Amino acid sequence: MTLDQLKAGDSATIKAVGGQGPLRLRLLDMGLIPRTRVTMRKVAPLGDPIEIHLRGYELTLRKEDAKNIEVEI
Amino acid sequence: MVFALAGNQNCGKTTLFNALTGSNQHVGNFPGVTVEQKSGKIRGAKDCTVVDLPGIYSIRPYTGEEIVARDFILDSKPDGIINIVDATNIERNLYLTLQLLELHIPMVLALNMMDEVRANCGSVDVKALSERLGIPVVPISAAKNEGVSELVDQAVNVAKNKLYPAVTDFCPVGPVHRCIHSVAHIIEDHALRAGISPRFCAAKLIEGDESVIKRLELDRNELELLEHSIVEMENETGLDRNEALADMRYAFIEKAVAESVVKCRESREHLRSLKIDSVLTGKYTALPVFFCVLFLVFWLTFNVIGNALSDWLSLGIDRVTALADGGLAAYGINPIVRSLIIDGVFAGVGGVLSFLPIIVTLFFFLSILEDTGYMARVAFVMDKPLRRIGLSGRSFVPMLIGFGCSVPAIMATRTLASERDRKLTILLTPYMSCSAKIPIYAVFSAAFFPGREAFVMIALYASGIVLGVIVALLLNKTAFRGQPVPFVMELPNYRLPSLKSVALLLWEKARDFLQRAFTIIFLATVVIWFLQSFDTRLNAVTDSSFSLLASVGRLISPIFIPVGFADWRVATGLVTGFTAKEAVVSTLSVLLGTSVADLSSALSGLFTPLSAVSFLIFTLLYTPCAAAVATIRKELKSGIATLGVVVLQCLVAWLAAFSVYQIGGLLL
Prior knowledge:
The complex is a heterodimer. By secondary structure, chain A is α+β, with helices and mostly antiparallel strands. Chain A has a single domain, classed as Ferrous iron transport protein A (FeoA) (SH3 type barrels), CATH 2.30.30.90. Chain A contains 2 helices and 5 strands. Chain A is globular, with a radius of gyration of 11 Å. By secondary structure, chain B is an alpha/beta fold. Among the domains of chain B are: 2-160, Rossmann fold (3-Layer(aba) Sandwich), CATH 3.40.50.300; 175-262, Helix Hairpins, CATH 1.10.287. Chain B contains 28 helices and 10 strands. Chain B has helices at residues 13-21, 64-76, 90-102, 114-119, 126-133, 148-160, 175-194, 198-206, 210-216, 220-237, 241-260, 268-280, 286-331, 335-372, 374-387, 396-401, 406-412, 419-428, 438-448, 453-477, 499-533, 548-556, 568-576, 583-592, 599-603, 609-621, 626-636, 639-667, and strands at 2-7, 25-29, 36-41, 49-52, 80-86, 107-112, 123-124, 137-139, 261-262, 488-490. The longest helix of chain B has 46 residues, at 286-331. Chain B is elongated and about 90 Å long. The chains are: A alpha+beta, B alpha/beta. Chains A and B meet through helix 1 and strand 4 of A and helix 3, helix 11, helix 15 and strand 10 of B.
């Protein structure tokens, strides 16, 4: 499954980071790399973006970008 | 000696910069971009300057901030780097550290927020971390000014004695290690010739950084060799090149952190943040809370504090003006000179100063919202609607402030992380109808649409927003085509803002505004005074309809024939509106020979309801006032671009008014 499909409170491990260009590099730089644990915190009130927790901090990204990140619960 | 201060966003970099330099700061610009460069002399160290680099997460050639930071380090070759790291979020912060280490420049690590770590019964084995990274590590608390002087001593020491980072390899022997070393070997000569560390170049070349390829002047043969060893690494690791390097860095960091950092419980600050967020970004509470905060800020700024300060200020200005006027009259000075001083200089200065209370108050609230971490939440909540026009949630607050006053709105775009978003936001701000236009709307809607004033107002505000959206969509397809900057943003823990930082920011904004805007607004006022006071033969006029200004009005009024208000008095009013929008109403009342209160009835002779609507649309959209233009000039760093904004606004205004007048004429 992909990162955007996690429910609030769910934790998962990143399997692969897809996508391309600056956005993908930014995700890698922020620590979203394979074998990292992430937890879904919440979806923004208007339905997008999402807030996740990883490496001890909170990060927000858009659903369309989270779709490129494959995770495994 | 010159030091570069580098670190992530939200790690306390500004606080440390303030602690290092005190108020002895110089604000300039990095060459060629609108990114602000702050530098200052370090207190307690002789001849040491520190340059505050933009907050970045990595050294990449994509955002303006990253390019600026990297070019500064590569081109100006600082004597040392002070890398500030948030100890409560150490893993991600060290990611930048590893890239800085590769640059092979004397460096110290400032481990910030150590007070918070200790308060949560955590600890960092500074010695172990320092050995791991091969550079001195100094625990500090920038907010409490702890450890800062030791940090300065260490920084001066490494720079003076040229103590380079002792560790340069971050990976165990394996495919990645092999690849980095073979690339470094191939390009070593080029790198040394360019004066950049081969190890840094190797990592950046593997990541495909075009600008490094250019700097090193590699030939096709060498590039093929590089590609070959990179592909080999990709095949062996099963990761692509960027993943492989990110993985290598994070693996090293995880090990270093496991060895040196003890975290015995979830930090109180983090738990508190989660609790606050359950309300501030909660599903049902986020929007109501946001609009309440916004209303409160606006109400306090424009109605309570700003008003009171403005009243005091104008009282003071009136006193001084009256005193000067009396003095000049008693002295028997030439009436023209007296008029210049009182109506030109004093009115100009008064005009400039009248903006100040609002700007200072608004920035007081804005900096508190920013420093506490709430602004990042606003961006999180409001991102979705703004994405459609090619912006991110970060632009919401500056644009909203535009409804109060364009000047602080444009100044507030500084908080935007990307140069592209900042420019686009500045261009859209004039479409948010500012509060100075309300008197115009009020007079006209009372004259032509009695009983429906509220509807007219709402329609005007909505038209501005709709046109802004259309312009944004057009700009996205033309001037701002291409990839918008990724919206991947940290939501930092909520923190109490430091009074010192807020005070410094207010002082900076106030000084900034007075210095830069003063000249232009002042000049504009004096020019308008001159045009108002003399006729074409430079005789002082008694009847304002013979003034140069009236001639200008007569000259340009034909432009307004197709939009329905070709009267020279209206054109003159629009010209004076450039100094401040309120002036449109007062000029019209002077030229029509009535008081502002009776203006409504006098206007019915000049306008039909349709041309009144056309006029309102025009005033909604035409050139921002002198103060706003001066601010745009400052933020865009280009006179031509600013002129472009003014011309574009006038053109859009005319076209919109034209459509309204012509289409309305056909329908009615």
